[in-house]
Design goal:
The protein is mainly β and 313 residues long. Helix content is 7%, strand content 39%.
């Protein structure tokens, strides 16, 4: 409506006639902020509402809000366009803060409470619903959990690093089921499995960050594929820290020191790359995570720039 009012005013004044015709032709859609496809940016360095101090985990509701955790142990909820909605702190955060979180299909937010060796479960308003895990190397124990994924049956998969460096599978009732990836794969043990997802074919993908590769398993732990090694070329990776299933069913990989996003096919082929290192809009600096969110847009945790960038695919 405001666009139409401006056009009528210009016509009445006898000026900017060409501008009016241009606006009628292209409509009133807001242009992208940068040639790199960024359509929104929110957050800046600080401790106030909507600010970040080294954000490093993100999760998004398909048609709702976006959740971001930063190094203060705080989780903030934003609208799809980045407007601050609310925040809460983890119950404890003096030892360290979360590095990963995922939204369950039923709306619960699962947070890898990394340095307290457990997974916390909240509702979307920050009310604690459950917690599971404890420090250790045995069944039902964690060392530095990193990320969480869910299969169609409601089972839960948790990555963890340091001495464990494995994936553990849990039942919908939060009971330990099994270990996945505990043995060497192609002569290398998992080394910081930083991101985990279950795809539409019900296979488990793991971002084996410090081995710079992707692993694909059955849900029972049988290895299906290992792909990637250190480098900057397509198909190579530099510290893949996060994974997301794209709407077209490809695998989105966020590379922490690669300063880019890279999409892979199910058979391990690199399909496309987005991102370049820097401080400007459309550039990223040590991103910890990325996810698809409302409207099919991509939300990138631009960690050392203390912001989230919204990218139109």
């Amino acid at each position: 409506m405001r666009c139409h009012i401006r056009i009528r005013s210009a016509l009445r004044s006898g000026t900017l006639l060409c501008f009016a015709w241009f606006m009628l032709f292209v409509g009133c859609e807001r242009p992208a902020l940068s040639p790199n496809g960024v359509v929104g940016v929110f957050g800046s360095l600080g401790l106030g509402d909507g600010d970040f101090h080294y954000p490093r985990a993100i999760a998004a509701e398909p048609n709702g809000s976006v959740f971001v955790a930063d190094k203060t142990g705080r989780i903030q909820r934003f609208s799809a366009d980045g407007a601050f909605e609310l925040s809460w702190h983890m119950p404890e955060y003096e030892k360290g803060m979360p590095v990963g979180m995922s939204l369950h299909p039923d709306g619960r937010l699962f947070v890898a409470d990394t340095h307290y060796h457990r997974v916390m479960v909240f509702d979307r308003d920050g009310n604690q619903l459950a917690a599971f895990g404890e420090l250790g190397m045995g069944p039902g124990q964690f060392q530095l959990p990193t990320d969480i994924a869910f299969d169609a049956e409601g089972n839960i998969y948790v990555g963890e690093y340091t001495e464990n460096d494995r994936i553990t599978k849990w039942s919908p009732d939060l009971e330990f089921v099994q270990v996945i990836g505990g043995d060497p794969i192609e002569d290398k043990r998992l080394n910081r499995p930083a991101g985990v997802i279950v795809d539409d074919e019900q296979t488990l993908w793991v971002a084996d960050a410090c081995n710079h590769r992707l692993l694909r398993f059955t849900l029972d732990g049988e290895l299906l594929m290992a792909v990637g090694h250190f480098g900057n070329a397509p198909g190579e990776m530099r510290y893949p820290y996060d994974l997301c299933l794209a709407p077209d069913k490809t695998i989105l990989v966020c590379e922490y020191l690669g300063n880019r996003l890279q999409w892979f096919s199910k058979d391990g082929r690199s399909l496309r790359i987005w991102g370049v290192s820097g401080r400007e809009v459309g550039q990223i600096f040590d991103p910890w995570g990325a996810t698809y969110g409302p409207g099919g847009r991509i939300y990138v945790v631009d960690s050392l720039n203390n912001r989230v960038q919204i990218v139109r695919p």
